[in-house]
Each structure stands twice: as structure tokens, then as C-alpha cells.
Specification:
Keywords: DNA-binding, Transcription, Transcription regulation
Protein name: HTH lysR-type domain-containing protein
Order of helices and strands: HHHEEHEHHEHEEEEHEHEHEEH
CATH class of the largest domain: Alpha Beta
Strand content: 15-25%
Structural class: alpha/beta
Radius of gyration: 22 Å
GO molecular function: DNA-binding transcription factor activity; transcription cis-regulatory region binding
Largest sheet: 8 strands, mixed
Family: Belongs to the LysR transcriptional regulatory family.
Length: about 300
């Protein structure tokens, strides 16, 4: 017998181009993804997914099933929206997304404020890098996202909210602390970089270009927490959000380097699809965001 979970997994496998990508997207194990696909194929009596050396793709009949599944999920979303319009903030769901830094360090505070005003609304937060959040928004998996870069997709619109600084951090015992530095003082340092697809990564690269340090030694790491731990361990320097590093700098675990030209700022924006009809919880959350003039403390 068909169920929605199996259809959701099938769509994820096809859109991700493989089982491992679908597992990561759905926060499931890869064997669980395989079991869902196998059970769905057994229910329908046909092969829906063909494994290839590059991953996986839908068979011809699989493409038919995926198309039907997408229409089903679109109708369910319309149903949720229609019901939510009658419920207001007395029920419903708020599903929002943020880039790795914003989703980790900002979104929980914003959702906590919202939940105190609408305690009966179920809240969920998704976190991914900039490219991932934009793909969720485009596919309609989430209605609202907090991002840094201006979205490249024409379906998405961005509304600037506020500005934050980027800070260059070093271990507390670094001899570079306590004086103004020039880019030449950093030429022999290793820089720890976010993964490709991250807005922070693009800003890190822009800062190094501004300082004429494009050829400096660079190591790629995943996520701001790993970068902070790597800096603490003495593996190099990292340019990160002022808010992502606030606790470490206040406690003295990491120190901020002063460089001239100064490190850049960046704008936090609310991003959504231009044609998306928002539910009452989503509209209320947008109103809350528009009232935020600075990063909440």
C-alpha cells in the first residue's frame, strides 16, 4: 500500500541524484532510504529507480510516479494553507530555514520569541548552506529563509533586515593580537575556510582578495563550529560572523585581529519565493522579522 513517506523519499532520491543525497536531505540513514524505495517498488510492482555509476535516476515509469507525487504534495500544501487561514495562530506549523550560521546562532532566538506569542504553532528549523537553503525555497519545501547573499534564482526575492560584521579570529595566545595589522602581516598564516556553497566562504574569499592574499595557504572545513575549534587548536585563522564567535571572544578563548583594510560587513536578508502564499503563522513571523533592527541579544 502506498504511503506519503515512500513518495517523499522517491522524490528526494530523484532530485538529489542518489540515495546518499536523499538520506542527507531527509535526515535518514541510507539503508532506510533504500528500504522505502524497495517497499514502494514492491507495492507498485515496477522498478522506479535505476542505480548508475553517477548515483541514481528515475526509470520512465518512475518519472510518472514522481510527477504524480509532486502534484500530491502541492495539493497537500494548499490544503494546509487553507486550513491555517481559518485557524490563525491557534494551530498550524511554521517551517523556516537558515544558512549554517544564521540557522544555528540566530534562528533559534527568533523562533523562541515567536513561540512565546504563538505557543500552539508547531515550529521547525532547517539548517543548510546558502545554496541548500535556496534550493529548499525554490522547491517549496520551506516558505521562509534567512540568507546572506542576494539570491541568484529569479523566483526568489530578498528583503534586507540588518547588518553584521565579519571578524578575523585567532587563538588567544597568538602574537598577532593587540596591534593593528596589515595584509602583509598575514601572508604567512594559514586561513581556515568554510565549504564551497557557503555564503561565508564567498565572503572569506572576497576578504582575502581585498587583502591581496589570494595565494595564501587555505584549508577547507565544514561549518562555523569546526572552524572555531580548529582556530582554538592552532590550525590557522578564520574569518567568521561576529555573532558566531561572540561567546568565544567574550570568554577569551579566541581573539579578534584588527586588520586594515577592515574586515567586511554583510547583510542578513529574509528570502522567499515571490509567488508563495504565506500561512498566518508565516505572515506573523515575517512581521516579527521586519521589526528586528539588529541581531537579538
Amino acid at each position: 500500500m502506498l504511503n506519503l513517506n515512500q513518495l517523499e523519499v522517491l522524490v528526494a532520491v530523484v532530485e538529489s541524484g542518489g540515495f546518499s543525497g536523499a538520506a542527507k536531505k531527509l535526515y535518514m540513514s541510507q539503508p532506510s532510504v533504500s528500504n522505502h524505495i524497495r517497499n514502494l517498488e514492491n507495492s507498485l510492482g515496477v522498478q522506479l529507480v535505476q542505480r548508475t555509476t553517477q548515483g541514481a535516476r528515475a526509470t520512465p515509469v518512475g518519472e510518472v510516479v514522481v510527477a504524480h507525487a509532486r502534484r500530491i504534495f502541492a495539493q497537500l500544501a494548499e490544503l494546509e494553507t487553507s486550513v491555517a487561514e481559518h485557524q490563525g495562530l491557534k494551530a498550524g506549523r511554521l517551517l523556516v530555514a537558515g544558512t549554517t550560521t544564521l540557522g544555528t546562532y540566530l534562528m533559534p532566538r527568533l523562533v523562541a520569541d515567536f513561540s512565546r506569542r504563538a505557543p500552539r504553532v508547531e515550529c521547525q528549523i532547517r539548517v543548510g548552506n546558502e545554496d541548500t537553503v535556496e534550493s529548499w525555497l525554490i522547491r517549496g519545501e520551506v516558505a521562509l529563509g534567512l540568507c546572506i547573499d542576494t539570491p541568484s534564482a529569479e523566483q526568489l526575492v530578498a528583503e534586507p533586515l540588518f547588518v553584521e560584521r565579519m571578524v578575523l579570529v585567532a587563538p588567544a595566545e597568538s602574537p598577532l593580537l593587540g596591534r593593528e595589522l596589515s595584509p602583509a602581516d598575514l601572508a604567512d598564516q594559514r586561513f581556515l575556510m568554510r565549504e564551497m556553497g557557503s555564503a561565508t566562504r564567498r565572503q572569506q574569499e572576497a576578504a582575502l582578495h581585498l587583502w591581496g592574499l589570494d595565494a595564501v595557504d587555505k584549508w577547507d572545513l565544514w561549518g562555523p563550529d569546526i572552524l572555531k575549534e580548529a582556530v582554538y587548536a592552532g590550525l590557522g585563522l578564520a574569518l567568521l560572523s561576529e555573532h558566531a564567535t561572540a561567546r568565544e571572544r567574550e570568554s577569551g578563548v579566541l581573539g579578534e585581529l584588527v586588520v586594515e583594510p577592515s574586515t567586511p560587513t554583510r547583510t542578513v536578508s529574509l528570502v522567499q519565493r515571490a509567488d508563495r502564499i504565506l500561512t498566518p503563522p508565516e505572515e506573523a513571523f515575517v512581521a516579527q522579522l521586519r521589526a528586528v533592527a539588529a541581531w537579538p541579544t
